[in-house]
Amino acid sequence: MSSAPPPPASGDDYPVLTEPIPVFDRRPTLRESFAALAVFNYRLYLGALMLGSTGGWMARVAIDWLVLELTGDVRLVGLAVALQFAPTLLLGAWAGVLSDRLPRRYVLLTTQVVATISNGVLAVLVLSGAVLVWQVLLIAAVTGVAGAIEGPSRSAFVSEMVGTRRLRGAISLNATTFHLGGLLGPAISGVLIAALGSGWSIAINAGTTAIAVLAISLMRGHELVPTPKQPRSRGQIREAMRYAWRKPAIRWTLVLLAAVSVFGMNLPVLLAAAADDTYGTGATGYGLYNSLCAGGAFLGAILSSRRRSLRLRDVVGFALLYGGITMLAGWDGWYPVFLSALVGIGVSRLLFAMSAEALTQLSTNPAIRGRVVSFYIMVLMGGQAAGGVVMGAIAEAFGGRVAFLVAGAVPVLVAAIVGLVLARRHQLRIRVDLRRPRRLLTIVRA
């Protein structure tokens, strides 16, 4: 795998060419795909990320339900959601500047300590029966701010743990872990809320963030490969925006991510609508649907780790695949087709998410990576926050099947438009080869 270029002296000198993206010159073995796990610091980090992502989603679901229990006011539930996600939109770019300026390990440690204390206090209040709604909203805001500051440093810190040679595999493992947590957390929290109440989901999240504090503290500092920190200067956010816009691999990836995150990544809403309205399977069906998506996501992670190259056309293709399978899930047909489509949704979602994140990070100069990653996180988290409201309204008004169709159709449309733009700009065409089924459809230069 090729090495990343050294950081330039000034922002205007950052290279903007998309190629060459670091690639394997042959299909990697399983051992090479998981080579990042040989690094002690990364093993600690990945375990903490898995627990933290799952616990974080458990707490988000529990907080929303808790506000509804305390007030019965759906508008306050919407406020709780906004307080958890809005800081990412408001502070994300500034958090990227901090990531490029401060030691990322200590940023992570500080934000995890804040999250542990906040969630622990809220868990005690809920389990003791002394909680008030203003306390819930305040702690939701505090944890939202901590998460917004942590995000860019969490993603960019990976290169400091594993170096350039293992970076692509580590990014794939990261994306797998993060998105698996997003699938598992709401399902586990739903079961706990029904059986024991909201307090225990929040308490578990306090425990997972405490484990993250311990894991970060136990890292071997001498084994880290820190990137050069950027001095304080004016216009660093504008510099990163210009950089991202000038690189097609980043610009178009963010456009596709916006379409998929707003319309296609709100699986709890879609699956709840399917379990309640479309198929009437209740909580049992909801758990099954989440399990099928999670299983597909695990398979997608394995498939992604075996890929030899990473290009923008792959991200476009996976967005098309994800949208098409999501539309299939909304087809008014045989129930086993719906269940099979859920596995496909899990596979294609992970393939898209890992390719998009890996392409964004590997296309970015290390000296500006924190700021560019902050844009990626803002689009991902902000899109899911807005999409929850949009897709919830569609499911409520038109039913679960229509919601699935819309969730798939918009990513398909956007990916098709991006693909046409890229094809015209680079003079690409689709080649069909009936004699070689494994290369039935390929994109080649005209």
Automatic annotation (TrEMBL):
**One Pfam assignment:** MFS_3
Its subcellular locations are: Cell membrane
The record's annotation in SUPFAM superfamilies points to: MFS general substrate transporter (SSF103473)
Q: Domain Major facilitator superfamily (MFS) profile, which positions?
A: 40-426
Transmembrane parts of this sequence: 34-54, 74-94, 106-126, 132-149, 170-194, 200-219, 252-274, 286-303, 315-331, 337-360, 372-395, 401-423
In this entry, which stretches build a coiled coil? none
Keyword rRNA processing attached: no
UniProt-listed InterPro entries: MFS_dom, MFS_trans_sf, TM_effector
- Indicate what this protein is called per its UniProt record: MFS transporter
Origin organism is Protaetiibacter mangrovi
